[in-house]
Amino acid sequence: DAGITQSPRHKVTETGTPVTLRCHQTENHRYMYWYRQDPGHGLRLIHYSYGVKDTDKGEVSDGYSVSRSKTEDFLLTLESATSSQTSVYFCAISESTDISPLHFGNGTRLTVT
Amino acid sequence: GQNIDQPTEMTATEGAIVQINCTYQTSGFNGLFWYQQHAGEAPTFLSYNVLDGLEEKGRFSSFLSRSKGYSYLLLKELQMKDSASYLCAGTDSNYQLIWGAGTKLIIKP
Question: Which of A103, B21, B23, B105 has its CA 20 to 30 A from that of A77?
Fold first, then answer.
């Protein structure tokens, strides 16, 4: 299994508070992704990174920011959490963007009350 | 627009065969992935098709028809552990993944 660790695994927070989720990989893969997964929806891309300090927005990036200061770490920040951001968040990595499959972390279940 | 469609839920019997269909519309096309996701767990890669035809991997096979915008995942000799959601994802011309909502497969003894 690809070495990907997400932390925390579960978090409950209040509306308006900042939240940071961490993804750590030991595979030295260039590409890292943050997705959210909600019932009735496919996985939706929030942000992705194609190298240290190189990031770009996905289809649902509003309300989220990311940072990648080291190859192995990709942080997702909710600046001011809202109830609509209650979701399961998955980090994924891949060697390249073409035919390489994604390898996913175990997910973070975030509840915003 | 870009879209991936797959059935929401399917039921099958242990030991039987089941086919999960996926249709796609993407701006450009660079292949189609299938992932398996057990409840409460992360998706795991099953297969990738870019050329027309059938790719077989043990009990699981995946088929692609580019002209019809259609793929299916075939699971043989179903086991209870195959109860999971199966996610179809197509790649567009920029190699961005477009995900279906997943098909929940229920296996009955």
Answer: A103
What tokens does B92 get? 């567009």
Q: Which of A37, A45, A59, A106 to mutate to test the interface with B (most CBs of B within 10 A)?
A: A37
B99 CB neighbours in chain A (<8 A) are 42-44
Q: pLDDT tens across A10-58, in order? A: 999 999 999 999 999 999 999 999 999 999 888 999 999 999 999 999 9
Distance CA A103, CA A108 (A): 15
Widest Cα–Cα separation across chain A: 40
The conformation of residue A7, written as its DSSP 8-state character, comes to: E
The predicted pLDDT at position A49 comes to 96
Closest to A93 measured CA to CA, from A28, A9, A8, A37: A28
Which of A43, A56, A57, A100 to mutate to test binding with chain B, by most B CBs within 10 Å of its CB? A43
Residue A97: is its pLDDT beyond 80? Answer: no
In the beta sheet, which residues pair with residue A22? A7, A75
Q: How far is A68 from A48, CA to CA, in rounded Å?
A: 10
